[in-house]
Amino acid sequence: MHELHRDAGKPGARRVSIAIRDDESLRDTVSHETISAMLRGTGLPKWVKVECVVRKLAEWSVSGLDADREVRRFHQLWLAADDDGLDGTVPAGVRNDFVPSQRPAPVPAGPAPAPGATLTNVPAPARHFTGRERLLAEIRAVLSGSNRMPLSLVGLGGVGKTQLALQYVARWAAEYDVLWWVPAEQPSQAIAALAALGDQLGISLSNDMRQIVRDVLAALEESALRWLLIYDNADQPEDLSTLLPAAGGQVLVTSRNYAWASAAGTPFSVGVFSRDESIAFMREWGVTAPADDCDTLAEQLGDLPLAVDQVCAMQTATGMPLADYLRLFAEHLDELLAAGLRPGSRTTTVATFVNVAAGRLRAESVAASQLLELLAFMAPSPVPIYLLHAGRGAEVTLPLGRSLYSSEELTRLALQLGRYGLAQVSSDGQQLQMHRLVQVMVRERLSEQEAYVRRLDVHRLLVEVNPKNPDDSRTWPQHSEIGPHLVTSDALRSPEMPAREAVLDQIRYLERIGDFEASAKLCRLAVDAWRADSELGPEHRLTTRATRHLANALRSLGSYNLSRNMIVDLLKVLRTSDAYGPDHPDTLQTANVLAFYLRLAGEYQKAFEEDRRRVEALRRLHGPEDVRTTEATGNLAVNLRLLGKPAAALEYDAALVSTLSRAVGAENERTLVAMRNQMWDLLGLGRFSDAVRSQPEHRGRRAASEIALVQQALAVALRKLGRVDAALRTAAANYRTCQSLNGPDHHLTLASIMTYANTLRAVGDAMGARRLATEALDRYRRLFGAENPLTLAASTNLAVALRALGQWREAYNIDELTYEQTSRILGPDHPHTLATAIGLANDLAHHHLQKDAVALGSATLKRLRQVRGDDHPETWACAANLALDQNSSRREPVERLTALLGPDHPEVAAALAGMRLECDIEPPPT
């Protein structure tokens, strides 16, 4: 570390800490105390802390070090570090950043593989494999090397990339503790596969799938286990950038996208067989034809491994002499060329084989042929027999429909497809997979009517196995499994409504696991298709619900204005439509979303009125005691908090907690949300200790976003109680969590930045506070406008940080404008206005405008006693400042602050020292 530090120019620990904090690409923050201890060799920091420091120092290195290589080098050193005496002189305030003297288990609470055993989900390789020895040796050399760089196998479809990866795993499986196969064509599939690994490791402690993935990757990186992750059929590198581990084990990627050649550490281009490899592969299959016939066949097939394998499988299954097959192949090839296919292309090669093999299969078994056609309209990912069997209640074309009732019969049909080389079948016959090239050729063989029927069979099958209830995390594995098939089979255009409803469930599932990009993409396809559909149109419930989901996804991706406009337009349609009307459940749900946008825009009174109309409608529909009605009052409380009325909000929230505890239980997520809202009510009332005591305990699988909101409230409460070191750790963790969960422009991320900035100021890092407050203010202005209350709150907080740095003129300029804007927009009695007034009075006093300071301080104190009351610390902070301006005694304000906060509180110490007190703003969640 000292060498790397010198190569980076020996920057100060505080400078490194600030740079890491400001770099959104890094996964954590690192305090300057931790960095100093790291450079002294004191203790062993947690790996994520080391990684952040190494990446930043490598970026600054004069020798131009490769950051990824340095991370892997340091990871090896970190794993080999001696555990003895790690806690010796680690500063107490940052001890949580260090590994304890007794290292934790390789993964949290998970069942580590038994000695000699491997935790794996990797499918078995094909029975027949030959050649590729040079490639395998080169792959082995890279993956076993000291640098442990990721490796990508890149090539066209059908050249055998996946089989090459499977063969590598089969040969060297004994050298790994964990081997995990990650289908990676769609990010949601990769997320589900990594989450499944988390289940095996015992670390799936969140309802947020992306948080589970982060935990899994972190556990692997900090583990001494030998692991290999194989990301199969990856598409865009940027889609998987957050799903790849940084160091610690080995990563292998297969892809048809040549962008991976530069994205992964070491690329290998996989081409077709050499002629000798083609012939050797035929011999491996047991083909005994003369060498000239084998050579002719290989040439006809273009040495494409997929085609050679398929032909060998069919020849073995039928016993047809190779010479006869060549004649039949030539006949079908002539037909395809006459239809316009290009001679010599891999498409023509596969199409010719499929024509021959599918024709023979049809003559042998109609049910097997129907299964072949069914698979052609599903995703090219593995299809388990149990999934087909689970769809036995679907109205699928006979005789295949009857076969679905017997898993044994389905296995027999699958093996028939395998014998003809039309699908890959697992060794136990319980899973089959069709290559995408074969799928295309099978679909091309069908007439329009045949394709319509078979696609409809797929839709009915998927409807039968759709678990529905996407808000229930127990259904997520099934949703993950059927999702790719819904997309590939174009279920959103199905003539049958249940199939389209399954698409809507998939959209909601993607939203719930945090894959907003995939949710938005599928939403757009659905909305466009359903609006244009004569049977549905823009007012159909599927269209309106998909529109609402699209708005939700876009909001989560930071497109606030577009999302809000969609909701406004949708609500107009619903309220005026004869099919809906103002009291329809869909209308009320959309009105609920609109109220959120009104709050986000700072139109708190309008949001309150919107939510009040919704509560009144629910009372008419369900009665005042119904849990749905009571739960809706929770939004009234949200509005009241934002309007500066926490006492009224607490009444609603307390009643809601009581109702939900009885109705769904105290541990239910809905109850915990209401309890979290109570924390913010208590913070608004100045009851900081009560807020800490009331924080909900999130046990088991809870949504990471909800935990983050509790974490933010806790950070605020700890700071207000004067426990600034604990507050800093909590605020820093919350900041990184929100960045990771939501991205840099999400409103919750911006709120976490403000909380972090306020906490930095409280611990004396005014420079850091100013930097973060400026960043938050710039983003708030860009996203929500200059006069949004959130923007104005950020302005007030920036002014507080500037005063801490002695930049009084800049603070005065900000406060003068902000006070006018806040008074006009929120009103003179709003707590945000009064907080800004306290800061402005401080500015006036510093600039010797004593008369103005006294006038403003007096008016503000009067309003605070009416609005906040005499039991709120802000009231007495204002009174203490006013006493300074009036040259009067501070005895009463100091005594009241001491009673409220305790004698050891930093604010009390500041008041006793005759210092001016500050009042920052922590807006509650919208």
Strand content: under 5%
Q: Cα distance, first to last residue?
A: 44 Å
How are the strands of the biggest sheet laid out side by side?
1-3-4-5-2-6
Question: At the fourth CATH level, what is the homologous superfamily of the domain at 119-269?
Answer: P-loop containing nucleotide triphosphate hydrolases
Silhouette: globular
CATH class wording of the domain at 119-269: Alpha Beta
User: Structural class of the secondary elements?
Assistant: mainly alpha
Secondary-structure arrangement, i.e. CATH architecture of the domain at 119-269: 3-Layer(aba) Sandwich
Characterize the main sheet.
Answer: 6 strands, parallel
Tell me how many strands there are. 9
Helical element count? Answer: 43
Assembly state (oligomeric): single chain
Mean pLDDT across every amino acid position: 88
Radius of gyration, in Å, reads: 32 Å
CATH fold call of the domain at 119-269: Rossmann fold
Low-pLDDT stretches: 103-112
Helix content: 55-70%
